């Protein structure tokens, strides 16, 4: 019975490590996507600023564009944190000491 439990524990650990690896890949792609979204939002904001300055856009729409940039910046920070956190979990499973570099 103990041998079966040991084998089950090994399989569970392998499954957990594999899931941690998949999580790192997923959050890495999310972080990359958030960066691209931020770049696009900043470009759209610059176009909106030009349109606002010449009177082709009202203040409400311009503030909406600015809010979208702010939200994209917050999303980059959140996805970066999630990616680093998942990476540290994977490093922990591989026995790499946790450092804050």
The strand count comes to: 0
The helix-strand sequence is HH
Shape: rod-shaped
Q: Regions with pLDDT < 50 over 5+ consecutive residues?
A: none
Largest sheet: none
- Cα(first) to Cα(last) distance is 44 Å
Mean pLDDT over all positions: 95
Q: How many helices does DSSP assign? A: 2
General description of the model:
This protein has helices at residues 2-53, 59-93. The model has no long low-confidence stretch (mean pLDDT 95). Helix 1 runs antiparallel to helix 2. The protein has a domain at 32-101. It is mostly helical. The longest helix is centred in the first third of the chain and has 52 residues, at 2-53.
Secondary structure elements and their pairing?
Blueprint: H1 2-53, H2 59-93
Quick overview of this protein structure:
The chain has two helices and no strands. The chain has 101 residues and is mainly α. The protein has a domain at 32-101.
Features of the shown structure:
rod-shaped; mainly alpha; 2 helices
